[in-house]
Structure formats: C-alpha cells, structure tokens
Amino acid sequence: MASLDFGPLFAPGLPPPAAKWTGFAKYNFIGGHNDAEQLPLAALIKAANDVLTREARNLATYGLASGPLGYRPLREFLVQKLERTAGIRCDADEILITSGSLQALDLVNGILLKRGDTVIIEQATYQGALTRLQRLGVEAVGIPLDGEGMRMDALAAALDALRRRGVQAKYIYTIPTVQNPTGTILSEARRHEMLRLAAQCGVPIFEDDCYSDLIWDGKRPPALYAMSTHGGVIHIGSFSKSVAPALRVGYIVAPWPLLARMLPLKTDAGSGALEQMVLGEFCSAQFDAHVPVLTRALRAKLETLMAALDEQFGTAAEFEDPKGGIFLWVKLPDQVDTQKLFAPALAAGVAINPGAEWSTDKSHGRSRTRLCFANPSPEVIRAGIATLAEVCRREFGVPARIANVERARV
C-alpha cells in the first residue's frame, strides 16, 4: 500500500528540510556549545536534589505556583544579579522566563514586527536573529562594527536615510556586550549615543545580552536597559552560555505592559519547570563562583585557537582578540569563499560557520568564518585548525606552505 504523499500538503514558505543528524564533526567549531569539563555537575546535582526534595509537589501545577512569568526564585535571583552586574533595576514581575533566548527573540518580534517592516541590526550578527527576520519578511539594515562595536556615525546615517525614505525602523537590535560573532564590547560613550539617537528618532532598542557574563576581565559597561531614561529598551539574556545550553533557559526584561502583550503569544504553557527549579537553586548559591572558573577555561582555549591559527595560517588568517565569549571571527584571504569551503572542510571532519550566514552584507561575510572554541579540547582545536589549513590550501591555495606567523588582526 502506497504511503500518503505529504509534499502537496506542506504549507508554502517553509524553510528547507533539515538533514538527519549523524553526530558532531570530528573537529566541531560550530554552534554555541560550551566547555563540558567546566559544567558544574556536582553543584547541579545537589541543586536538583535539594530543590526537588523541597518543592517537587509544585510540579503538579502549571507554572510551579509562580504564575506564567516563570519560577519566582529564579526571577528573584535575576533581579539581584542584573542590578549587581549590569546596573539594571527591575522587579521580578518585569522578568519573563523563556525557553532559551531564541523564544525571547520570537516573542519580541511577535509583538513588534509585521511583514514589510524595517529593523536596524549590526552588520555581522547572530544568525538566529537574521533568519527570523528573513522568514518574517522584514528588511534588516546592517550597521558596520569596529573594535568598539556598532559605529554610531553609521547608525546616525542609516536612521537619517530611513527618515528621508519615510521609513520608521521598528527597533535597533544589538548585542552590545561581547558581540556575536565579533566579541566586541560597545563602549559606554557609544551606548549613550545610541540611546540618544534612538530616543531622537522614536526607535526602541532590542538589547541581546546573552554573552555578557563571559568577559575575560569581568568588567562591563552598564546595560543599555539600565542607562535608558525613556524606557525604550527591551533586554534579553540567557543561561545557555554561563551554565549550560541544553537547559534552554533565557529571559526577557521589560515593563509589564510589554510582557502582558508577550504572554498571550507564549503558548507553550510554561518553559521547562525542572530546568528553572535547578537553575534557581544553583544560581543563588554558586553562580558567582562558577562564572570566573568558566571564563578562565574559555580564555585558555581561545589562546590555543589563536596560536593554532597563527601557526597554520600565518597572516592569511586575520582576527581581533575578542573581549570574551566563545567565538572567534576570522577573516581569510578574499579568494576564500567560506560557503564553498564548508563542504570540503566537513568532508575532512571540520565543521565551520560560513561568515555570509552571519552578516547582512554577504560580500562582507564571504571570506569570514565564525569559530566556536568552547567545546573542543585544546588537542582537538590544534588538530582541527591544521586540517582546516590543509583543506584551504587544497581548495583555494592558501595559506602558503611556509606561513608567516606574524599575527595579523582585522
């Protein structure tokens, strides 16, 4: 008996079908995976046991008897943590727990965007944000970055150009604190200027702060949300990079009238309860001690990656030392198209993120790649970069056999 052909029944406009997962590549530099050796397993196990012993009967109710905003002890931890680290003053009822920051993106987009809208975004930015805008039919205007993050002269020019076209941007999306993929931190002076320009033009700012805990020196400017005097900022964050990505716990900080419009769109009956309970228990006791240990380990892996690139590519690989995070944004020679590099590299066991997928300007991203260094061991990083160099040499003729190991940066 023939099986039903679902092809004609699929809704129009679906993304391409996913490939079956066959495991991680031998040398995996993609995704936002973290360092498995730094996962605080003993503390998480203890937190799970303690919180379930004390509160497990709340699992019988949707929302853990905390309501639709999420597990209250976790939100109360965030109130204290956000004020201490980012200067944000809010209360627990101005925080919505989400299923990762991706759901936070969807909820903010859901209340603000419609097809044909325009948003302003960093030229190199998070692929998950870009693909969502593309699927919504929203125009993304990319703003170039330099070593201090988004350039304010370019932002001012873009806002002026939109005004002359009669277009009102719906928001400015920015990752100001350890930017993805560049690893830059927007200076405090530029934060003031962004807030001024946004207020002048009546444009909200959508602040994605998912990597802000992973700063090498532990110092950061205040969040845009904290610096705003007119309430025009929505702030999102995540525990994926500071604790564990598989837990899928993020959050939104916004005034209640905005959260009240997001909640009807959050139709999942609540984000994962066990994850919230364990994080609420763990973070209140262990978060501040855990993060410096994690960042020291990540910094050591970044040093290994930069040294391996210098050894294998010499000046053919250009990059700046990021201020924190888990990614290195690498520029290869212009003749290297990283979209075309992807398949032969993967065939050799090396998985990379082609830069064009992380940029509003495909030509700018063409010879760039984002490398995640958090998950592979130092030995795997070194071997993976050596293999990648061999593939680049075979496919594009670079790097030269005798590499110039003088470090180059963009």
Short account of what is shown:
With 410 residues, this protein is an alpha/beta fold. The protein has helices at 41-55, 72-86, 100-112, 127-136, 152-165, 188-201, 224-227, 256-262, 273-313, 338-347, 362-365, 378-396; strands spanning 27-28, 95-98, 118-122, 139-143, 145-146, 149-150, 172-174, 205-208, 233-238, 250-253, 327-331, 350-351, 353-354, 368-372. The protein has 2 domains: 23-39 and 290-396, Aspartate Aminotransferase, domain 1, CATH 3.90.1150.10; 41-287, Aspartate Aminotransferase, domain 2 (3-Layer(aba) Sandwich), CATH 3.40.640.
How would you characterize the overall build of this protein?
The structure is a single chain. With about 400 residues, the chain is α/β, with parallel strands linked by helices. The chain folds into two domains: about 120 residues, Alpha-Beta Complex (Aspartate Aminotransferase, domain 1); about 250 residues, 3-Layer(aba) Sandwich (Aspartate Aminotransferase, domain 2). It is about 40% helix and about 10% strand. It is built from twelve helices and 14 strands. The strands form four sheets. It has a seven-stranded mixed sheet, sandwiched between helices. Strands 11-14-13 form a three-stranded antiparallel sheet. The mean pLDDT is about 95.
